[in-house]
Structure formats: structure tokens, C-alpha cells
Amino acid sequence: MKNNITVYTTTSCPFCTMLKGFLQQNGIPFKEVNVERDPIMMQRLVNQTGQMGVPQTEINGKWVIGFDPERLMDYLEK
């Protein structure tokens, strides 16, 4: 099963940097959306999750809020 992963970030977020590094180190491909540069996507994100903070990661339709490697790995290929 191919995972569909989108990471929502901002430019200055240290946890976003940690999350992207974690995914890259584990060879996990992902799409990044910088909501700082795309206010329409930021509004969509808030509407979807009710959360304004980043990072937020959508994995196969499930959401992980913040930098949570254990939950990310749990959602992969399930």
C-alpha cells in the first residue's frame, strides 16, 4: 500500500524541521505544504482539524498533530 503523506508547515517552525528530517531519514516520501505561504490551505487545515498549530500531518486520511514519530509510524501502511 502506498502512503499518501502531506506535511503542513511554516518556515520558522522547529518542530516542522524535525518532522521533515525524521521522514527524510526514514526514507518516507511526503508532500510539504507551507501554510505561511498559502493562506487558503491554512484555512482548509483549520477547518479540517480545528487546530492552528503546525506541524500537522495527514497520512492516508488520518491526522497527526505536532511532531509525534510514534503515531506517524503507527499510521503508515495501515
Structure description:
The protein is an alpha+beta fold. It has a domain at 36-78. The chain is 38% helix and 22% strand. β3 (56-59) and β4 (62-65) form a beta hairpin. The mean pLDDT is 93. It holds the Pfam family Glutaredoxin. Residues 5-64 form the Glutaredoxin domain. This is Glutaredoxin family protein.
Question: What is the topology?
Answer:
Elements: E1 5-9, H1 14-25, E2 31-34, H2 39-49, E3 56-59, E4 62-65, H3 69-75
Parallel strand pairs: 1-2
Antiparallel strand pairs: 1-3, 3-4
Q: Strands of the largest sheet, in order across it? A: 2-1-3-4
Main structural class: alpha+beta
Sequence stretches where pLDDT stays below 50 over 5 or more residues: none
Strand residue percentage: 15-25%
Helix percentage range: 25-40%
- Return the average pLDDT rounded to an integer: 93
The rough form would be described as: globular
> How many individual β-strands?
4
Continuous helix count: 3
Determine the N-to-C terminus distance: 8 Å
For the largest beta-sheet, the strand count, sense and barrel status come to:
4 strands, mixed
Rg over CA atoms: 12 Å
Order of helices and strands: EHEHEEH
